[in-house]
Each structure stands twice: as C-alpha cells, then as structure tokens.
Amino acid sequence: MPARRLAAVLLCALAAGLIGLAMARFLEGVELVFYGVDAPSLPDRVAQAGWRSALAPAAGGLGAGLFWWWERATGGVVTVRAALADPSGGVARRMGLVRPCLDGVVQVLTVGAGNSVGREGAPRLMAGAVAARVSSWLGLGPGEARLLVAASAGAGLTAMYNAPLGGAAYALEVVLALRLLPRRHARPRGTDRPQKTDTRSQGTDAQPRGTDRPRGAASAPADPEHPAAQATPGPDAPGAGRGSSTGTDPGAGTAPGGAPSPTTWPRLRATVLCLVVSLLAAATTWVVDGNRAALALPALTATAPTFLALPVLLALTLPLGVGARALWARFAAHHPARLWGLPLGIGGAGLITGVASLALPLLPGNGRDALGAALVAPVTASAVLVMLGVVVLKPLLTGLTLGAGATGGLLAPSFALGGCAGAVLGIASHLVGWDVDVAALALAGGAVVLSVTQRAPLFGAVFVWEIVRGPVWYLPVMVAVTVLATTASEQVTSGIFRKRFP
C-alpha cells in the first residue's frame, strides 16, 4: 500500500475513534447538565430528576431547532450520502469540517437531552467529513476517497458502540449498499426511478421545505438512516435510493457490454478496507475505555422452547419493522413548511417525550437503554406492561421528533423496538409455563427490526450481537432470522409501496 494511502487509513481510523470517544463523553455530560443527576444510565437519571424529566427534552429540542434553523437557512450541511453519490468527488470536497462537526454535536445534544432519535448520525457525519478532508489533503482519487469516507462513517459507529465488525458491516451493507448476503427474487437496487434530493440539507440528503437549493448542489440518493431524505416515500424506505446512482453496488455497477464501471469498487477491497478502519478505530477507543461490551447480557441457554419460539418472534417483529419503517418515512416526509417552525416543533416533540417519560423512564433517548432493560427484564406482568409501553410509544415519539424536523438516526430506536417486543414474547411465554430464554428472544428481536428498517440482514445480526458480545453459537441463529425477515419484508413492501407511490 502506498505511503499516502496508509497514512489516510491511519488518520481516518484515529479520527473516527477520537470522535466516538469525544461524543460518548459529551453525551454523558449533556445528560448530567439537563437532568442534574449523576446516575449510570439515562433511565435512572429520568426516574430521579422529577419535573426536569419533562422539560429536558423540550429544552434540548428548542436549542437544537434554533441551530438547525440557522444551518438550513444558510445552506445546510453536506452529508455522507451526498458525498458518495457524486462520482467526481466534488461534493465530498465541499463537505468541510466546521458544519458537519457542529451538526454532529447538536445531534448528540438532542439525544442527551432525551429526544427520541438515534445518536449514530453524529459520528457517521463527522468521521466522513474528516475522511473527505484527509483524502483531499493527500491527493487520493475520487474512488478511493469515496470508499474511505464510507469506511470512516462505519468506523464512527464502531467507536460509539465498540462494535468493529458491526461498524464494518454498516459501512458495507448500509452506506455502500453492497449485498453481503445473497437475496433471491429481490429487484436489484438501481432499477427504480432515481429520487432526486439535494446535497446540503437537514443532516440527511433532503432539501427542507422553505429553503432555496444551494448553488451547485447535485442530486443524491436518500440517506439510509433517515426517511426524511426521500422526496417521495419509496419501496425501500428509509433506505430508498441506495445504489440507484452511486455506482457502489457491484451487482449494478457495470457499463454497457458487461465492462465494470470505473466507480464500482471490488467487494473484497471494500470489505478489507472497512474492516481495517473499523478495527483501528475500535483499538483507539480501547486505549481509553478498554474493550468491553456496550450492553450487559446474561448467559444465554440453548433450550428447545427458545428455538421453537423463534418463528413466533419472527411473525411478531417483522410487521413491527415494516410498520416502523413506513411510519418514520411518513412522519419525516412532513417537515415544518417554514424553518422558523423548527424550534417550536422539535421543542414540542421533546415536551411530549418528557411528559411521557414521567410514566415510563425508558422512553427518552435513543433506545440503547431500552434494549439493555429488555435483556435483563424480570419475568413479571409489570415488566410486560413496561416493554409494551416502549413498543407502542417509542416508534411514535421517534416519528414525531423526526417529523418536527430533527436530524437523527434510526438504529437504536429500531433495535429497542425489536428487543422490547422479543422480551414481551419471552416473558409472556414464561408466565404461561413455556421455559424460553427471554434475553435470547430480545436479542433476536432487536436484530430483526434493525435489519428490516435498514434493509441490511448481516449488519442487523452482527451489530446487535456484537454490542452485547453474545455467544458465538447464537450468531448464526440471528443471521438466519434477519435474512428471513429482510427477504420477507422486501417481498411484502415492494408491491405495497410501488402501488401506493407510483
């Protein structure tokens, strides 16, 4: 590997690791400031904060809305998706560092205040912007630069959750839209009509209503994490448009006559680079935080009732994943018509979240703690009610926050929804005398819903398994259920969405 390529990989991995560490520390500080309670988790802070729990998400949403009002009125921010959509590399060179970093900080502030969105968008955007700048400094070609931006975006997720394999799978399967696992009878990506969006936007790739198109902006596919990126909800929401014009899908990146497209990256090369960058970013975080799981997992037991319950789990969580994807796409497609409505809208959504948290402390934040609670849920009827509350209210609050105009991810809300649904099934089975492993069902449920919302079966299984450091024997089981779930969801939703949005 030439010296400048090696330098680029090392610098980007180091930057992604440091960004993840910094944002994790910042998140803890924001929670302490808003809730005034030094506790080990956000639900503990919420439960002890009293009236501040109702006002913290509203205050955070109001402040974030003011920033995004200014940002979008002055041109928005160039996203990772927009950078990857431009084969010339010109959009990546316009990303800059200041705006992406400020936007990332505000995203983490929004989550730390208790608003119901994911936190992974911040390190993804910030690490991608650093990679774009490093690639420009070192004179890398457009193809190399775009691949490095994608790998760094995955490494940012790695650093946030200490999940190097999951971060690499995210970069490959979600950001680059590579098909890591074979899919039968699925329409190849890139065959649908392109969905045009702008390169500078509200943290995704959508042009918010009420703003002018920035000069020189190019169209880009939708962001895989944020359904607001779609001009029109499509069959692959919230990941619609992936691979439609980026040339990143080896299955679709061929020129007439069968010749490989110059913008198609060999699958092996992309896989190796994403793994290397993610592993180096994880090693950076290990120096400070050590190599430990993001969430605690009790010992899993391989019992026959647990395996027999998996088809029931699949039948329960598959509709939840499809429904959440459609719900978030519908909410996010209706942003405030005027930018001045952002502070009031996001603050109002935060107030609703805060008031709901007085009865259910698991609701605020991105959902990471909700999955943690599902994994160790006691076998009681009250635990069923708590988990059901998260299943019903968490998707609604997340959609309301996105619909108000907030920028954020959907990874944690997805696996929180699936994990709590799996816990409900497990606890209910125990209560009727069926000896299943509640944690195993919660883990598989989180992976299923995440894989369906992101259309990424390998990422959904590996990421959820890795953040709890699950047993090796359970990973193939999770992969099997996520592959079945995503295959079924594509078959079910493709016809529905194409008929509804011709």
Itemize the secondary structure elements and their pairings.
Elements (H helix, E strand, L loop, with lengths): L2 H33 L6 H8 L2 H22 L3 E2 L1 H6 L4 H4 L4 H15 L8 H18 L3 H20 L2 H12 L24 E2 L65 H23 L14 H29 L8 H17 L10 H8 L5 H23 L7 H21 L6 H17 L2 H12 L6 H26 L2
Antiparallel strand pairs: 1-2
Helix pairs in contact: 1-6, 1-7, 1-8, 1-10, 3-6, 3-12, 6-7, 7-8, 8-9, 8-10, 9-10, 9-17, 11-14, 11-15, 11-16, 11-18, 12-14, 13-15, 14-15, 15-16, 16-17, 16-18, 17-18
Please give a quick description of this structure.
The chain is mostly helical. The chain has helices spanning 3-35, 42-49, 52-73, 80-85, 90-93, 98-112, 121-138, 142-161, 164-175, 267-289, 304-332, 341-357, 368-375, 381-403, 411-431, 438-454, 457-468, 475-500; strands at residues 77-78, 200-201.
SSE succession: HHHEHHHHHHEHHHHHHHHH
- Tally of domains: 2
Question: In the CATH classification, which architecture of the largest domain applies?
Answer: Orthogonal Bundle
Q: Which percent band covers the strand fraction?
A: under 5%
Give short descriptive properties of this protein.
two-stranded antiparallel ribbon; 18 helices; 502 residues; Clc chloride channel
